[in-house]
Design brief:
CATH architecture of the largest domain: Alpha-Beta Barrel
Order of helices and strands: HEHHHHEHHEEEH
Number of strands: 5
Length: 222
């Protein structure tokens, strides 16, 4: 008869987490607290919040995720999120070490006037929570900064000019991708989140750059 491992024994083992996302680790309890600080799109009631997190598809998952991201607006939000995530990791999962992937860009928002926070304030809030978590829970936290960049497509248009089929999705303050499509253009669309408004054709043909490269290669061999 096969022996069974006691789940309580596994739960009590000290653990390390090397891939965990900062905002993505927020439990409904933490999201509810942030939503109370910033009333609006995200519900505060636990039952409504449960329904809010019932994802219909991947695009809806991204929409919900970005709505929660938009709740992290102040250094105190960053501190509360980080400290409470650490509390749950330490007390509920017996974590002793974790590397959190953080995206400062979504809270700093350097290209939007009147919103966001200085990167120094963001970093100080992270550090305050890290020190407090290690002191209170014995959990060592380290950071991996995620730096979003433009979405690149194959082709010669490397100047950053979007192709005509790309248009913004959602509002200016909380853009969300409504659908994911592969674009037949060889231009480079602007930075995420945007969507393609033209029916896709895939795979696209070779770009002018790749054709000219093959032509040069052929002439060299000749």
């Amino acid at each position: 008869m096969a022996s069974r491992v006691d789940p309580a024994f596994i739960a009590g083992l000290p653990k390390a987490e090397l891939h965990v996302h900062h905002v993505g680790s927020a439990s409904p309890r933490i999201v509810s607290e942030l939503a109370r600080r910033h009333p609006g799109t995200v519900p505060q009631d636990p039952e409504e919040l449960r329904r809010f997190f019932e994802f219909r598809d991947f695009a809806h998952f991204i929409e919900v995720y970005l709505a929660v991201v938009d709740l992290v607006r102040t250094p105190e939000d960053v501190r509360v999120l980080t400290y409470e995530v650490a509390r749950e990791m330490a007390t509920e999962q017996s974590l002793r070490y974790a590397e959190l992937t953080c995206t400062p860009y979504t809270s700093v928002r350097p290209h939007e006037d009147g919103v966001g926070m200085p990167i120094e304030a963001y970093t100080e809030a992270l550090e305050d929570a890290r020190v407090a978590a290690e002191r209170d829970f014995g959990l060592v936290l380290r950071w991996i900064y995620d730096i979003p960049g433009p979405v690149r497509r194959p082709g010669p248009a490397l100047s950053g000019t979007p192709c005509a089929c790309w248009e913004p999705s959602g509002s200016a303050t909380a853009p969300v991708p409504r659908r994911t499509r592969r674009c037949s253009s060889t231009s480079r669309p602007p930075a995420y989140p945007w969507r393609c408004a033209r029916p896709p054709t895939w795979p696209p043909g070779p770009s002018p750059r790749s054709r000219s490269t093959r032509s040069r290669s052929s002439s060299t061999r000749a």
